[in-house]
Amino acid sequence: MKKLQNIAVLALIGLLVQCTSAPADKTAATAAVLDTTALKAAYETTVDNKPVHLYVLKNAGGVEAAITNFGGRVVALVVPDKNGVMTDITLGYDSLNHYRTRSETYFGALIGRYGNRIAKAKFSLNGKTYQLAANNGVNSLHGGPMGFHNQVWDAVQKDDRTLELSYVSKDGEEGYPGNLSVKVIYTLTDANELKIDYEATTDQPTVVNLTNHAYFNLNGQGNETITDHMLTIYASKYSAVDTTLIPAGDPVAVEGTPFDFRTSKQVGKEIGSNHIQIKNGLGYDHNFVLDKKQAGALEKAASVYAPSTGILMDVYTTEPAIQFYSGNFLDGKLVGKQQKAYGHRSAFCLETQHYPDAPNQPSFPSTTLEPGKKYQTTTIYQFGIQK
């Protein structure tokens, strides 16, 4: 069995190398580059007596997304660069075992019940205090150590472009109240969009804040930096944080600070600033409050462009905020796909969300979900070329 697993992993490594290898011509560049059979073989296993698989979505333009139902993770996302070279732009690992055993467990994952941090790992709802797992210092992060990123989801691939995942989080799981039924639909469109639709219902009042934790590098996964990327975030305010990265009160203006990305700016331009918030975050690790024209509407939240590859990513969301994380805790010790070490600031995240610690801060938009109501949000990552 171990020998077969090693063969599968080696096959996956070889296939992912193809994602970043220059093709002989542009026709080859736009052809499918993932060998579906071998990829699936590398992920055929069981976790907690539940079957795990890898599912491959593809569109007419050759864009492909490989997603596993373990944590709902985007394992690979392959898009063309300005020369037509198919490029894998998401960080991840070569085997399922690495997702379970290595220190960075969030690569590409669905996050819940509550994305981001909850202060001191507790909150009160309707007069009752709920104690959560403290897995980020004194705080709870991303739903706890056995959050949605570490669960096996039920999966149905409806066609080449659509994957539906579902999971029931039982009352008391990681300290959260209520049985929460969750559905997430990944859709890869011919407009080169990876669309993520989230739905949830509960039988008791609870708190919900779902997101996806893809780590992107538009120069190609494993490239040494994202500080050369040009970033726009359509936000006039952000959440200043304390030293444990919990919002320190109401959002404040980005104007006159390193957090002003309202016009396109290189990520690395002010990342070495002495600004106290850069120090607290060890770079960027902050919630940006989006300048929404209409609450709950699907609007552009951010744009990222990599000059070296020409790859452009636009982010659209119905959510009120987005977390920009500049890969500050990556340190080169993690070895990912193609045996590449993931160095300091070699990836970024743009996690669409409600505010961190909202259950403990009444002035923030509510994250409470009541029985009979439906939690419903959409986020789109759209890819193109800017020359």
Question: What does it look like?
Answer:
With 387 residues, the protein is mainly beta. It has one domain (1-387): Distorted Sandwich (Beta-galactosidase, Chain A, domain 5). The chain contains 5 helices and 28 strands. The protein has helices spanning 2-20, 26-30, 36-41, 96-101, 276-281, and strands at 45-47, 50-52, 54-58, 64-68, 73-80, 86-88, 109-111, 117-118, 122-125, 128-131, 140-141, 154-159, 162-169, 180-188, 193-202, 206-207, 211-213, 230-233, 235-238, 252-253, 265-266, 285-290, 299-305, 311-317, 321-325, 349-353, 368-369, 375-385. Strands 12-13-14-15-28-24-23-18-21 form a 9-stranded antiparallel β-sheet, with no helix packed on it. Strand 3 (54-58) and strand 4 (64-68) form a beta hairpin. Mean pLDDT is 91; it is low at 1-32.
Number of helices: 5
Number of discrete domains: 1
Content-based structural category: mainly beta
Taking pLDDT < 50 over at least 5 consecutive residues as the criterion, the unreliable ranges are: 1-32
Please write the CATH class name.
Mainly Beta
Query: Level of helix content?
Result: 10-25%
Average pLDDT metric: 91
**CATH topology description:** Beta-galactosidase, Chain A, domain 5
Q: Give the termini separation.
A: 48 Å
Instruction: Specify the overall morphology.
Output: globular
Rg, Cα atoms, Å: 20 Å
Report on the biggest sheet: 9 strands, antiparallel
CATH architecture name: Distorted Sandwich
Compute the number of strand runs.
28
Widest sheet: strand ordering:
12-13-14-15-28-24-23-18-21
Measured by DSSP, the beta-strand proportion falls in 25-35%
